[in-house]
Design brief:
It is a single chain. With 168 residues, the protein is mainly alpha-helical. The chain folds into 2 domains: 50 residues, Molybdopterin biosynthesis moea protein, domain 2 (Alpha-Beta Complex), CATH 3.90.105; 101 residues, no CATH class. The protein is 62% helix and 6% strand. A 3-stranded antiparallel β-sheet has the order 1-3-2. α1 packs across α2, α4 packs antiparallel against α7 and α5 packs antiparallel against α6. The chain is elongated and about 65 Å long. Pfam families: HTH_17 (PF12728). This is Helix-turn-helix domain-containing protein. It comes from Dactylosporangium vinaceum.
């Protein structure tokens, strides 16, 4: 599938997005960091490639958590009442267990998010942002996926995200 003209950016537009000089963008193109196509003598860069550069991939564990929460999102939209009730119960339990206040900021963030409703929760748990990644590390959705479902998601993740070979 080809790019539409609106998806192709000039080096000047990319420089503005990256907060750098146009020459730096040209250098990124020339050294292979950014893919580009030629339009006459001009370089054009796909917006997706620029966004990938702006948003590097997460570490493997963060990606795995995102995959698990995508499955949680599916269960949550299939049965919102059950999913939200479980989250509120788990959150209350965690507040009791971790009464020292060390995770209070995350508990408060989850409570505010849960109070916004299912749509807001699904948007956040499937987002590719640092805040979403932090929230997923403190998820109140433990137990929403069965163990079988969880293992199935993890197997699918491993199949599509092979570990990088380690050098000896």
């Amino acid at each position: 599938m080809g790019s539409t003209p609106s998806e192709l950016l000039t080096t000047t537009e990319v420089a503005a997005l990256l907060h750098c000089s146009r020459q730096h963008v040209v250098n990124l193109c020339d050294n292979g960091t950014l893919s580009f196509v030629r339009a006459g003598s001009h370089r054009r860069i796909r917006r997706d490639d620029v966004e990938r550069l702006l948003r590097p991939p997460f570490r493997r564990e963060v990606e795995k958590s995102l995959w698990l929460h995508r499955a949680v999102a599916g269960k949550l939209v299939a049965d919102p009442q059950r999913g939200m009730a479980l989250a509120y119960r788990n959150l209350a339990h965690r507040r009791e267990v971790h009464s020292d206040g060390s995770a209070e900021v995350w508990f408060d963030a989850w409570e505010r998010l849960l109070d916004k409703g299912v749509d807001a929760v699904v948007d956040m748990i499937t987002a590719r942002t640092e805040v979403a990644a932090e929230l997923r590390q403190n998820t109140p959705f433990a137990g929403l996926l069965t163990e079988r479902e969880r293992l199935k998601v993890l197997a699918a993740f491993d199949a599509t995200h092979p570990r990088a070979a380690r050098s000896a």
